[in-house]
Amino acid sequence: MTDLTATRAEGEARLVAFVPRMGRRYANGRNTDHGAGAHLAVSVLSPYIRRRLVLESDVVAAALAAHGPEDAEKFVQEVVWRGYFKGWLEQRPQVWASYAQGVQADLAVLDRDRRLRRDVDRAMAGQTGLDCFDAWVEELVDTGYLHNHARMWFASIWIFTLGLPWRLGADFFYRHLLDGDAASNTLGWRWVAGLHTRGKPYPAEAGNIATFTAGRFIPRPQDLAKVTKGLEGTEPDGLPPLRPLRPCTPPQAGQPTALLITDEDCRIEDFGLAGLDIRCAATLATSHLRSPLPVAAAVARFEGRALADAAARVGGVATQMQAGAADDLAKWAASVGATQIATAYVTRGPLRDWLDEAAPALAARGITLCEWQRDWDRAIWPHATAGFFKVKQQIPRLLDVLLPA
After folding, report:
1. Which CATH architecture has domain 256-373?
2. Mean pLDDT across the stretch 355-372?
């Protein structure tokens, strides 16, 4: 996985290659984790979809065209999950803020609690003595990827068997996953912990691991905690109330424009650039914002290559920026007389936090941050107010709108 070519062309080639397996073969084989280098039943397109080098709508359209709605149902649902998580977090940004603050607090506890620090270090080094868990650590660190089922088992063992702070486990994933996404990662860990679907934690069970690793690992039942309740008691006030989806201002024609390319969406050419008065363009590296701790070099490399590919598709030459001081963005745009910055919609996460910090400096210089929003997100997000079932029920109707015949 660390040698993936981070380009739109490569992502689309991988999409075409996986199309024959998007139907019954995916539905029947998707739950089995065959290990590093053997993930043939799943697409492994997530690093490309995460950065929209490959679009969800294109993936779903390919699956439906090749297999029809019945046989492609499971694959389509898995693609929609990512949109569901993003929309859910957009409407409960307090959950992201709580996670980010919680990571800082958990790291502070490690400085004071030497035993906990030792246990967390052993887990992150793959030295727990639990073969399956230690192997998943090695695969994650070496490849930047884990099968979805392995991610759930890993999180459950981290939380319930090892008794470690869930946010530090989520942070460990976020620092190493090439497809790391603030919404999917944070809410996936919360789901396992019984915080997303309140009171329904996900248990890692020995028999399930043995079956769905095809016997590669056969842990003893006594090696794993018996999960009888989740962590909902740590959040006694329950889920925060829904907030309206954040409105965005699209770029205006005729205004001096600075084009900003981030790995939130590396298909910037889709947004009708010809009608804009673009004075300059820049790529913005942000992977280092994922955590207070060092982020894996492979994540930064993939991001850098994806940004370079995106810039090449809109004219080639772009300033390479890194998210640093909050007023750097305003200084860059002002240096060419831009009155608006045009970029793809930035969802809740570390980059959104950084842009919020940059807002006062932009306002002081009379610069508007403008965003394009994709129809896919605009259609799915309003339904992401509770569990996935509500979105799942809407999938046929949503696809009729998003993928007209």
Report:
1. 3-Layer(aba) Sandwich (3.40)
2. 97
